[in-house]
Amino acid sequence: AGKVISKQEQQKMVNIAHRGASGHAPENTMEAFHKGFEMKSDYIEIDVQMTKDGELVVIHDTTVDRTTDGTGKVGDLTLEEIRQLDAGSWFSENFTGERVPTFEEVVDEFRGKVGILIELKAPELYPGVEEKIANALIERNMATPNNNKIIIQSFNHESMKKSKELLPNLSHGVLTGGGWADVTEEQLAQFASYADYFNPTMSIVTDELVTDVHEAGMDIFPYTSRSQEQALRLFNLNVDGIITDYPEHVYHHPVKN
Ligand code: G3P
Ligand code: CA
């Protein structure tokens, strides 16, 4: 038997699996991304950084300490060193042996299957990271007009301006934290000159903010929903998408009996 959901819940809501379906599998691993795909998310969200030898890897923190069995800064380790680390057992022993994926691996595995929301994490630490990402996408013929399956975002707004110049056909997003609750129309207009998405921490989202972002011509994907209540609150505020650790909290369409 299906579950009855309201009309509002049935409307199309973009479902973004945060660091993959990270409530169910270790964040930013292939297992978490596969889980997001299986759970029918529209996008998987990935955090991209650069190794000492200039390779793009998918990991959230600027050190490997929390999510692997190693220690040290991502930018001080070579790809070979990072690939030896276990990125799964911290989450559960069922995921022992998961590796830190490379950006190219994730793109090659998931392109054509699910959208990819690419976050440039701390790009100020990795000069040239925008070009590397742009080149990887251009080489694969993915930087084409209307490719809405790729979105690039960052808390570093200068990095997004630069990326937009390198990849004018692709959509970009600005991530904002708690300090942006009083964002002005002028600031939103400035963001809209290079970005298509304004993606705030969910705690600052109000009806008024959603209206202002829409009036500035952008969509809004708040982060990070971790409960059904949080997802429903965002639904009721008419956001365009929800970045969540639990894709099952964000329904796409009526569930049939
Ligand atoms: O996609 C938005 C969200 O991922 C930003 O915060 O710290 O989880 O990367 P964080
Ligand atoms: Ca992220």
UniProtKB/TrEMBL annotation:
It comes from the Bacteria. Keywords: Hydrolase, Signal. It is an enzyme of class 3 (hydrolase). The keyword Hydrolase applies. Residues 13-254 form the GP-PDE domain. One of its GO terms (molecular function) is glycerophosphodiester phosphodiesterase activity. Its EC number is 3.1.4.46. SUPFAM superfamilies: PLC-like phosphodiesterases. This is Glycerophosphoryl diester phosphodiesterase.
